[in-house]
Records
---
Amino acid sequence: MQAYVYKSQRKPDTYLYLAARDDFGCLPQPLLASLQPLVFVLDVALTAERTLARTDPAAVRANLAGCGFHLQVPPLPDGRTDRDDD
């Protein structure tokens, strides 16, 4: 699966993964407005062997297949992410 990654210029360390390049139509309009402007940074093949620095590639693949996008946000100040169990 191919993913196209965009960096938000408004929200630091926030990245948007899309299933199709420049296909912003799959995002809710309020979310898109909160992230813009967006700058394309890379395209990446999300193979089973692929690792990503701050997000689970399996979750990215599932989100891309399900809704067409995945939003990667920075970790909380204490280092936790939304994937951590409390």
---
Amino acid sequence: MPLAFATHARYYRNGAPVIVTATRRTPPESVSPRAKVSNKMNHFQAEFEAKAADPDAFALMLDTDGNIAESSGSDFLFISNGVLRIPQRRTHLTGVSLLTAVELAEKLGLETDEGAFTQFDLYQAEEAMLTASTYCLLPVVKVNGLAVGDGTPGPIVGRLLQAWSELVGVDIVDQAFKRA
């Protein structure tokens, strides 16, 4: 399946919306999120739910305690008070892209904090992002229709994308625009 460069380019430029869904992430007490299994029905349900609210949106799932877990197909991070906030890893599959984003953030001198974060914490964020192998890192500019920060891709996400491009030896954003 070809990469969706045109979609990625649009999100790099304008940012992506996310919708917090009523569908929850399977609790780690039931199935370890480290087990990459084919039963992801709740992920599909969350995606359908998000798309019904906003066709461009990614689904953001909470754990059964109401804390941020992950997107239906990617990891989710946000910046609050200049700190990179990472949802507790016990609730989601920690992807290589999330680990790369955290490593790059630390190299850029950003403090990181892993914990249980609520929607309220997210609504106070200055920036947010999704990480996945297909697009590396995408800026998130809306949560449930509300602006994250000033509603545009932020400077920290930009610095992380630049650092990622340097790491892999290709301008990720430029590549998306050229192949769109």
---
Amino acid sequence: MNNKLNYLVLHCTATPEGRPVSKDDIIRWHTSPVNQGGRGWNRPGYADLVELDGDLVNIIPFNTDDFVDQWEISNGVVGLNGNSRHIVYAGGMDKENKSPKDTRTKEQLATLEVYVKYTIKRHPKILVLGHNEAPNAHGKACPSFNVGEWLRSIGVTEANIYHKPVVEEKKEEVAATTVETNSNEAEA
């Protein structure tokens, strides 16, 4: 079964600033058994890795059509894996590995820009987002920078920038209004 490629999700490795990360590291972290320090997944979470020097390393091969085949799926975000491509940059934490930080090097920035723009060129309707914007992100900081702001700064149009669904925003407004109304009724 093939699913339409709808999303490009940007991630960080959540490793200290300046620490190199390899394809083998990611495969080990994601696919090693839990009792050996891994996540126990059947495949890594990212299709591609941007190393500190800007080199782009493929982890899970994919073709350039508009569909995500079974063999192309990476485990980047629960609920979005079947219709997404996931790319990760090495870094995302301060040197002490205590706080999220945008650690992208100028080389990583250049590679990410080309990668995003190329992906949009190949898939004009794709939406680009950070892992922290996904519906199931649960308070994650990943990728440790504001993806929408960065995309706008490199000239990506709003049509390709993921926005929180209006339905979710409306639910929050309704909930707030309901609480306020109930409070006012209690006072009356």
